[in-house]
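Much of what follows relies on a compact textual record of a protein's fold. Here is one such record, which you should read through line by line:
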Amino acid sequence: MAQGSANSVKKDRIDLLLVNAPGKERVYQGLANDLVAFEPPIWGGLIANFARKHGISVDILDAEALMLSYEETVTQIAERNPTLAVFVVYGQQPSASTQCMPAAGDVCRLLKQSYPEIKTLFMGTHSSALPEKTLLEESTDFVCQGEGPLTVLGVVQALKAKSNDFSKVPGLWYKEDGKARSTPVATKFQDLDNDLPGMAWDLLPMDRYRAHNWHCWDHIHERQPYASLYTSLGCPYKCSFCCINAPFGGSGIRYFSPEHIIKEIDILVTKYGVKNIKIADEMFVLNPRHVLGLSDLIIERGYDLNIWAYARVDTVKDKFLEKMKKAGFNWFGIGVESGSKFVRDGVEKGRFGDVEIRGVINKIREHGINVGANYIFGLPDDTIETMQETLDLALDLNTEYANFYCAMAYPGSPLHMMATQKGLPLPEKDGVGWIGYSQHAFETYNLPTDKVPAGQVLTFRDRAFDKYFTSPAYLDMMGKKFGNDVVTHMKEMTSIKLKRKYALPI
């Protein structure tokens, strides 16, 4: 790694550098090489364009996509010599910011060891949930609590003015006289089209991004180019296991207009040749005017797209399906969570039963839209028997993909507050560190239930994954629908066994 001080970095500094730290290998183990997606850092892209709108010189360093080492990342930050380096700490899943903290923290520590004069700021879901803790634990100068754009702009402007007064920067945590100080959270943007003028695609390595393997089952060898974007911010729901609303100060949803979003898609299609697109909204399939408005505009363009988006069992409406399929929405991510209505009710996950789940998923698939169903093992009321109910439901539904998770008390979620109050084991409390919140890491450290130890929940989850993806009924369906290449790919995927430090026999 390059060593030195201010004398060894470039003189022509930029105002702002937005950094996506490289952490995939530790987060995903052997899955990181070929199976998981590389997604553009959406918040980094939004803030970059926001900064440019306000006359700030800016660049993005997506060290994750570039597959840089920690040391190489530090060197590239130093070469850009920013007035402020912002570590934008989000994850591929809405609740995955915390698992990305170790990489960001390690890079920041290395940066400060060699280049202490470069000011740094952390932002993201985790930082918003635990701002003071982040400020005191990490080697950073500032932490953002809230969405971020106004906070980042305020810090850059204060640093450029050579002012040590950060008291008027909204949503900021900083140190003064050795103590943590904070300012009121920034007012949330309401006119998203004008306040956040699109993504800075030109600052991103667009040739490096690739879709999830399952997103491209019908063209498994064409996962690039790929992009993801928001069409709204926030979520109106309050599921106890989710921390998505931590940066927004509570539940609620705000929309970009369909006209704004289609301009972003125009750029992706015409300039970068993108076909595979993820709508990263926590809940896209919800508002009829928004969903149908964007679908109409895509259909008018005649684009050949392969889009996936999140939905809930109780938000999918008949009038959505035909038009969405015609627009290229080929995948819905559906949160089933549990096969037990009692367990679902305990985490405020809708008031629907198995009949509704089956009916909605069947209806989606009848319209030619594939389903990636999401299941969680180890929710507070789970037993071995109810987890088996969940697996049995997954096998019976036999959707084109399934995600199996362990219940995690993500910082910023109601479940984290409950776990803290009850004194339940948590990664940060028991010496595991933030990497324990990764679903696929060696150190995965999930919650126990009242009846099942955490290590047994983890073992059940890994067995459920193998059971599902080696199921003869599943492989037969996949072969008939997508061909032998996908079946071969599936067998290669299930041959990769995750190593688990805290798994227990059942």
Q: What stands out?
A: The radius of gyration is 22 Å.
